[in-house]
Design a protein that fits this description.
The chain folds into two domains: 93 residues, DNA polymerase, domain 1 (Orthogonal Bundle), CATH 1.10.150; 118 residues, Cytidine Deaminase, domain 2 (3-Layer(aba) Sandwich). The chain is built from nine helices and five strands, in the order H-H-H-H-H-H-H-E-E-H-E-H-E-E. A five-stranded mixed beta sheet has the order 2-1-3-4-5, with helices on both faces. Helix 1 packs across helix 2, helix 2 packs across helix 3 and helix 8 crosses helix 9. It starts with 30 loop residues before the first helix and ends in a 12-residue tail after the last strand.
Length: 257
């Protein structure tokens, strides 16, 4: 559940002084100075956003702008999930396309960084649940289907990070086997696993999902790379996992000659 606005450690009734330029505020009330003094984990959402936004406009300092953004979106979680167009559409003075792009990029970096494993200890993918754990955080808030390729070495350890190949409604014509397999060839991968999400949350594969998989199996075989599985990512419900493995379900033959 999204956290309420500005929940961190402020005295009751506390409000940053409005409208005054940040440089005219006492140093302890300036966002950057407060972040330095207290640390990022101990400041409010609006302070973090103010630091990311950097500047306000005439008659509205950056703290006011951050507060307006949080109020307009309803929560920090909503801001984090918003697209550039959705932020721009709010019509907030001082928050144009460039700043919206910077915010979207910052939140995406945070999501990606949260899922980076140690460089010296690459993830070993032993089963489809492992694929789900790697890919699901990357598509949790996605509103469109995203198709990923995961490259593996001979010990089934992940080479680099999963690569997004295409975004949008998937069909066989949208998936170019060269885009899937070229990175694997460049990295001398022994095998690949592909995955994509269903934004509806239902991971049941479609007939088109099966057709894409058969197409990729044939293409991978030509260049000497093994396609180990295609995992469809959804949301876990009750006791059902949030994914379907086409190999595990026997829906496609991955090992046929």
């Amino acid at each position: 559940m999204d956290q309420p606005l500005s929940t961190v450690c402020e005295p009751p009734g506390f409000r940053y002084p409005a409208t005054r330029p940040v440089r005219q505020l006492p140093s302890e009330m300036r966002p950057r100075e407060e972040l330095t003094r207290r640390g990022p984990a101990s400041v409010s959402d609006e302070v973090l956003l103010a630091v990311a936004l950097r500047s306000g406009t005439r008659g509205q300092n950056v703290i006011d702008l951050a507060r307006s953004l949080l109020s307009a979106m309803g929560s920090l979680g909503a801001v984090a999930r918003a697209s550039v167009d959705e932020i721009v559409a709010l019509g907030l003075r001082g928050l144009g396309r460039v700043k919206a792009m910077e915010l979207v990029a910052a939140f995406e970096l945070g999501r990606r960084a949260a899922n980076l494993g140690p460089v010296t200890d690459p993830v070993c993918l032993r089963d489809p649940e492992g694929v789900w754990r790697v890919v699901e955080p990357r598509v949790r808030s996605a509103r469109q289907e995203v198709f990923w390729v995961l490259m593996l070495n001979t010990r089934n350890r992940l080479i680099g990070q999963p690569l997004p190949v295409t975004t949008g409604l998937l069909d066989a014509s949208a998936i170019d086997p060269r885009e899937v397999l070229s990175p694997a060839l460049c990295h001398r991968a022994a095998a690949v696993i592909v995955a994509h999400n269903h934004p509806s949350g239902d991971p049941a594969p479609s007939a088109e999902d099966l057709r894409i998989t058969r197409q990729l199996i044939a293409a991978a075989r030509v260049v000497g790379i093994r396609l180990l599985d295609h995992v469809v990512i959804g949301r876990a419900a009750d006791n059902a996992p949030g994914y379907v493995s086409l190999r595990e379900q026997g829906l496609v033959s991955f090992d046929a000659a």
